[in-house]
Amino acid sequence: MPQMQEIQAVRNKTGYFFALASVCTIISAACVAIPLFVIRPFRPQGARELEIALAVRHAGPWLAGLCAMVILLLVFPLWKSARVGARIALVCLLLLTFASAAFTHVNIFEKMFHPYDSPSFESAYEAKVDSNDKVLAVRVGQEARAYPIRTMGYHHIVNDTVGGVPIAVTYCTLCHTGLVWSRVVDGKLLHFRLAGINNGNALLRDEQTSSIWQQSTGEAIFGPLKGRQLKLVRSNELTFALWKSEEPHGQVLKSDPSYAAEYDPKDWEKHVAKTTTVVDTTRSGIGPHQLMLGVTVAGQSKAYPIEAILAAKLIQDRVGSLPLILVVGPDGASIRVFEGTLENRPLTFARSADDQGISDIDTASVWNFQGCAIEGKLTGRCLAEIDAHKDYWFDWMNHHPESAVFKN
Questions:
Q1: What is the pLDDT of residues 163-179, one digit of tens each?
Q2: Of 57, 79, 106, which residue constitutes the final position of a domain?
Q3: Per its UniProt entry, which superkingdom is the organism in (predicted)?
């Protein structure tokens, strides 16, 4: 009888240990499965489920590691008393737990789109970029750089320093959005990596605090810096030919030869326009992939259809109380936005006779695509440029739900 009780006690102990090992394996696997299921392209992410998935992913490495340690400690007391079948099951649990723990340290998005950790540059005249390819153009002080969209569309992020200012150059092809953000928050220098996607827009993670940032808004949505806002650095999306004519001494981001074969093709926009979107734009009456130029002034936003801008070549409008003008460049493809006033005096503009610039009706001065008067009474005066960026309607509407839309 005592022997039977002893055998039963061993069985009970073995059962408890196996149950604990199974729980550890499930927890470890969940640390991988939950973020993979939630934070993936072409599925909607609710704010609450995204927060849970990000929390699980953040805690995953240490939580799965702890589970791996627990199950490893359970192997020793179980191994001698376990039968062959039980030993096999135990080894399977151990391997699955350790594999899951190891996978929590893998950034699957950077396996799909490799980072460009050491970006290199070449002169505008050395760069092998097609003249009609778009670049994200940045000028800080006396330094100008161009980041080809087809390169950025693959890497998504380039951490750089231009004119002494640390910047994160970002591009999300699924929403057609290129933005440049300062990498300094509260005096702390941040280094960004690709962290996933949220309703069709890329997520960024800074290595210093592991906070998660929304690419199209620059807002931290998770982590120690949640609620903080990155400072926007002005950029323009221009054709390479136009940028080169403006910045002949500028530097161009070189292709990374290791991944150049995976860069977006020239017709990438046509392919992206066929992808599934997860934001319902039906009630707006505007297609989700309608390409817009988004402008925000003093908290008020407005979206301008790119097709309408290119057709008109010059649009005068208002966002809130501010008059502004949208101007198409001499290449017929690039767009800039300026305040429509000079020293608080509104000006009325028209396309010049040769269609290579604009002139104001008030003084007959001629203005170039940089917003500066090059002929007439106001020669040498320049309009203030307004930050604007391209965005597919579904993404702009998602992050600017109160936005107005320009109508012809």
A1: 999 999 999 999 999 99
A2: 106
A3: Bacteria
